[in-house]
Every structure is written in structure tokens, then in C-alpha cells.
Amino acid sequence: MDESSIGINEGEEETPGTTAPWTFVDKYQDVPAEESTNSYIKQFGRFAVYDDDHGPVDRQWGSTGRAYAFSKGKDHFAAGGSATHGANVPAPIPNYLRRNPAQRIFSTSNTFAVLVPVGNSNRLILWGPGFIPANNRYPLRGIRSVYANGTCFAFIYEAPLPSGARAGQRIGATGADANGGLIPDAVHLKLADDPPVSIRATAAAFAVLTESGKVHTWGNAAFGGTMSTSATSALAGERVRKLFANYHAFCAIRDSDGAPVAWGNAANGGDIPADVLNNITSDGGAETVVAANTAFCCITAGRRKAFAWGLAAQGGSMTTEAVKQMAVTGNIAACRAGSWAFCMINTRGQVGAWGNTAHGGTTTVANIGNSTEPVTGIQSADATPADEVVQEFVDDVSSSSEPVAAAAGPIGWSYAGPDWKAYIYAVDSGFCLITTYPDDLIRSVSSWGAANTVISDPAKQVMLASYFEAVKTSNRAYLAIVRQGDAGGCPVAWGEATANGGAVPADIEERLQGPIVDARANTVAVPLNAVANTSGFTVWTASGQMATWGGGTGMAFIDT
User: Which residue stretches belong to region Disordered (predicted)?
Assistant: First the structure.
């Protein structure tokens, strides 16, 4: 099964177990899936990292990383986790949501917002430490779409506000003023004749994309809330084709020539070096951009080359000749970012990574296309980075005299070769590369980075005897959903167990009835080398059960 397949149309309201397993929307709230998935901060209204947040359950479930909220039909509302992150829902909101279920749930790093139907319109109801009613300046009714950064929500109204001091305004926000909770009048004026389509977010700023392809920003200047002079000049009179975000900066792709334009924290990706920009524009411009916490990587539209910029030690520079050669030769078919490193695959089946070496930025290049054995040159379950040596170096790219054809199709985090498929997954401190045969039987599992995120031998043996369905990642753990024998939807977890969900609790596994049909990771954005971190997973079964575990939300089991 190709986990990147598209199966649900924009606007449909789906519930767990009512759709084919592992189907995805191609966009949500007018944000294309590519632009959310390839951004470090996900863009579908939940402040999250890593999780590919575009499945059917997203509309009824939300997580701040350390708390969750779930609403499904009448009499079914639940919340749990840390009180400092929104788990305590003040009365009488819970009873209201049991009588009038939420249509959609959104979340910042510590606050929830639920959109509920009221008559022929709707209203946004909020709770959590980040919501201060006295500071709210915008009407919370008649809302079309909701977006989130770390401390604020921004929303687009169904129609311009009809009356009052904000008559004619098309967007609103709530939260910390400096981080996007207060929208400058200049932005409202620009939207009067050029309506908003969607909104993007870094950790502390917003950017609104309009019908004419213009971008207007607000929030913390150090996080992209103020567009730089150079970016303003580069986008003057231009239409933006795509828009991505890392933690600190935005990167747009200009429609006329594919040139990337970045702004925000200059050192963390908000300024593109002249030589990098020239390399990109001379190869057809940008096809897509992939974001880590403090860096970006652009895949070009021509020969699908890879060029990075941002904080050098955290993925902004390819420091080894092997990875550089792989990148400039082109034919990159898939690319994924962790917090502080990148990993890419080309159409020949080569894989290379760069960035912080303690967090998955290994300097090896290995081949997955011509062998049924696990990828060489990547850390195994019983090895450490200090022990690791490159067993095989693939140099046929640099020595080949034959031109390399450009890769076809969209650039994401998976790629299908002639007789194999490859999937890249990321956590804070490493990567996992899974390859499968055409029938989805798992062919190899290779993980590297911090030792506590590397797959154990028992888990690896089980994976190699299973068929691939999906993988979700928390901050420091992986949850694979596989088919074992005749049973689909079976969980296999590894990584940091107690704090980040890297082991399915025995009590939960025993109580799960029927296959898991959807899963989500409860993730948070953390500093480099954070001593402690908490995250976890939430799953749903075909029979309607919901279970959550990990250090962020604690363990809970609900029959929905």
C-alpha cells in the first residue's frame, strides 16, 4: 500500500472506521498536503511536527502534544493529559460538546479550539492556558477555517464581518499579540480587495496567501512575522505558487520562475545565500522545499538536485563530499527532515543524510536498490555511531558517463523503484528507512541516530515478517501498523518507550478489538539536545475504540 495515496476529498467530514484504512486528503482548509507535510510545523490547524496530519480523524481529534481532545457524535467527548497543556476543560464546555459535538478540533502548543455548529453558522470555543478572553479582539463566529502556531490561532471568516469596528475584515486571530494574536490594520486593508485563501504558520507568526497569490505576514519578526526587504522586493508583482515553513522562517516558491524566497530568522533559513539561489534558479527553480527546525532543503524542478541552507550544523549545509555529490547529481526522488537533519533518496536507490550527526545526520551514502539486505552504512540495532563504518560506498553516480534522467512525480517522503518501495520517517534524533517489495512485504528496516530510537532486534524480526501499512512517529519513537498473516492493522512500536510511546502498553494491546484503522502522534517542538521530552500516540480501531499512550498524554482507553 502506498501511504501517500489520496482518498478523501476536501470538505468531507469523516469518522474513524468509516473510510478505507490509511487514506488521506490532498488538501485541508485550502492548504495542499505537500505544503503541510514538507513543512516542519504542520499546517492543518494543529501545532505539530512529524505527523502527516491529513487523515480523516483530524477533524474530531486534536493534541497539544501533552494533552488531547476528542469529539465524535453526541455524548462522546473526552480530554486528557497535562493540565498545563489544555487537558482541564472548564465547565460547562464538556457537557455542551456532548450535546452539540465539535465539527473540527484545532490546537496550539497548550490550547484547544473547537468549531461547533450554531444555527446556520458556527462558533469557535476555546480553552487552555493560551486563551485569555479579555485579550480576544475578534468575533469567534462565522468561521471558514482555522490555523495554529505555537501560541495563537488565526482564522478566515466565511464572509467579511458585516458591522462594527471590524466591518469588512476577512480574517481574525486570538492568542499572544506579539506572536500573531493581533493582526495589523495594513494586513486587513490588503485583504479587502484580494480575499484570503489560506494561512500558514511558523512557531510564532502567520502568513496569509490570497486569491491573487500574494503573501502578507504578521506576528513575531524573528519567526517570519515581518517580511524582509529583500523578500518583499523578490515577491513584488509576483504570484506565490507554494509556501512552506520551518520553526523560524517561511519559504515561498515564486510562480513565474520557481525561485525560492525566504524570510524570518536569517541564520535559521530566512535568508538564502546567493550561490544557493543561483544553483536553484539555474536548474528550473524549486519543485518543492522540505523544512527542518532551522534549515530548508530545496529540490529543483529540472534535474531534481538538492540544495540546503540555514543553520549549517543542523542541516543547512551538506558537509560531506558523498552527500554533496549525490545532491548535485540530481534525480532526488524523496526527502524528509527531522528536527536537525535531512535524509534523501534518489531514483537509483541511494540514500544519504546530513545535519547534526547525533540526531540522524549520518555522513554515509548507501544503496537500497540492488540488494535485499538491509541498507549498509547505516547504524544497526546493536551498533553505536562510534562503531559504525561504511561497509559499501556507492560511487557509480559520480563515475557514470550516462546522463541521469530527471525524477518524475511529486517529491515527498516515499518513492517506488522498479521492484521496491522506500519510505523515510523521522524523529527528533534520527531516521528510519523502510523498504518493501511490490506486494508490501517489508524488505528492510534500517534506523539510525540516537541509540534509544534505533529498532530492537525483536521488533526488526517481526517487521521483516510483516506487510507494510503505515508508520507514525512521535518525537522519539516509531509506531508501525502492519499486516501479520491474515490480520491487518497490527501495531509494532520501538524507540523511547515510557516517555514517547515506543512500546504499546500490554493493557491497551490486549483490549484492542479489530484492526487499527487510523493513528496519530502527539508531538511537540523541542530545543536541540533537550534532556527530557514527552510525546506519544493515539490509535483508533475499526470497532470504534480509541487508545492513547506515551509520556505526553498518559494512557487512556475509550470506547467511542
Answer: 1-20
Distance CA 195, CA 193 (A): 6
Query: For residues 3 and 470, is the Cβ–Cβ distance under 8 A?
Result: yes
Q: Rounded distance, CA 365 to CA 358, Å? A: 17
Summarize pLDDT for 279-321 with one digit per residue, the tens.
999 999 999 999 999 999 999 999 999 999 999 999 999 988 9
Each residue's pLDDT tens digit, 163-205: 888 999 999 999 999 999 999 999 999 999 999 999 999 999 9
The SS3 of residue 11 is coil
Q: What is the pLDDT of residue 112?
A: 98
Lowest mean pLDDT among 19-23, 88-92, 114-118, 250-254: 19-23
Q: Residue 92, preceding bond cis, omega within 30 degrees?
A: yes
Residues 6+ apart with CB under 8 A from 381: 447, 454, 455, 456, 457, 460
How far apart are alpha carbons 316 and 342 in whole angstroms?
Answer: 9
Whole-model pTM: value is: 0.90
- State the chain's maximal CA–CA distance in angstroms: 71
Beta strand 536-541 with 516-522 is antiparallel
pLDDT digits over 372-393, tens only?
443 433 433 333 332 232 222 2
CA atoms within 13 A on the CB side of 255: 11
Dist. CA 113–CA 126, nearest whole Å: 4
Confirm if 207 and 217 have CB atoms less than 8 A apart. Answer: yes
* Helix, strand, coil share of the chain (percent; to 5): 15, 35, 45
Contact 476, 496 (CB under 8 A): yes
Give the domain ranges of the chain.
Answer: 28-226, 230-317
* pLDDT category of residue 368 using cuts at 50, 70 and 90: low
Residue 38: what residue type? N
**Ramachandran angles phi, psi of 118, nearest 5°:** -140, 110
**SS3 category, 441:** strand
Enumerate the β-bridge partners of residue 412: 334
